[in-house]
Amino acid sequence: MRTRLIFLMAALLLCTCPASFAQKSEWSHYETPMQFTPIVFDLGAEYLGIQPEHSFLERTVALGIGYGSMFLITQGLKFIVHEQRPDGSNYHSFPSGHTAAAITGAELIRQDYGWGWGAAFYACGAAVAYGRVIHERHWWWDTLAGAGVGVLSAWIGRWVTDSLDLEGTKKSNLAAAPSFDPITGAYGATVLMRF
Fold it and tell me: Which long-range contacts (CB under 8 A, 24 or more apart) does 174-182 make?
């Protein structure tokens, strides 16, 4: 119980870290804090008596991998596409990272808690997307692409987590090991996957 509470507090702390990267004007809009509500629900709903399909550890790892892949995909696309925002502030419009974050969480909640809770958080994701458009931070197609990235990222997080078999109940299909070359000083990794 104490370990879970520490994980929950760490997740809440990590949710506030993006504030240091966001412009001050971003926090004046409701969608900036709203994009993180699925994380808080996913890690804290069990304390309210709502039973998930996966364990706390599996949900935490899926969230980490899902949001990590979401961040890499959205930032990579922003760099490649280089689309100007509707307000003209910069060229990081496509895709919407806020929408991707909200939908990543919504899909992970749907996978763990079913469509009842999933639909509520998909509605939250739609509200985030709507806010990004009306506040002229994204075009509508940016939010649509962000939603697609969010669903893909959630599935990546769940698939990798299920492949790792964190609970030790089945044979793992995925293994990873770090490596270090003392001659060159290079770090690396080996990833093995069984099909």
Answer: none
Residue 45's Cβ-count burial label (10 Å; 0-12, 13-18, 19+) is middle
Bridge partners, residue 181, by sequence: 186
pTM: 0.74
* Number of domains the chain is built from: 1
Structural contact between residues 146 and 100, judged by C-beta atoms closer than 8 angstroms: yes
Give the count of alpha carbons within 13 A of 152, CB side only. 14
Q: How far is CA 107 from the centre of its chain?
A: 10
pLDDT of residue 43: 86
Residue 1: pLDDT over 60: no
Task: Kindly state whether residue 127 falls inside one of the protein's structural domains.
Answer: yes
**Structural domain that includes position 53:** 2-16+25-168
